[in-house]
Amino acid sequence: MANSRFQKSRLVFVLLCFLFFVSRLGIFVAADDKSNESNKDDGYDFAVTEEDQIGDNSTLSGGAYAAPSGVAMDQERSELCKTDMSSFLPPPYNNISNMVCKPVWNTFLLRYHKKEDNVVTFILSAVYTIGWVAMGFSKDGRMVGSSAMVGWFNRKGQARIKEYYLQGTRPSQVIEDAGELDLTKVPPAVVINGAMIYLAFQAKFEKPLASQPIILAFGTRYPNHYRLSSHDDKTAILFDFTAGSASRAHINPGQMKKNHGVLGTLAWGLFLPSGAIVARYLKHKEPLWYYLHAGIQFLGFLLGLANVVLGQQLYSKIDANVPSHRGIGIFALTLSILQILAFFLRPKKDAKIRKYWNWYHHWFGRIALFFGVFNIVWGIHLGAAGTSWKIGFGFLITMILVTVIILETLTWLRRSEKTTPPETFQMNPI
Question: Which residues form the DOMON domain (predicted)?
Answer without folding.
Answer: 106-219
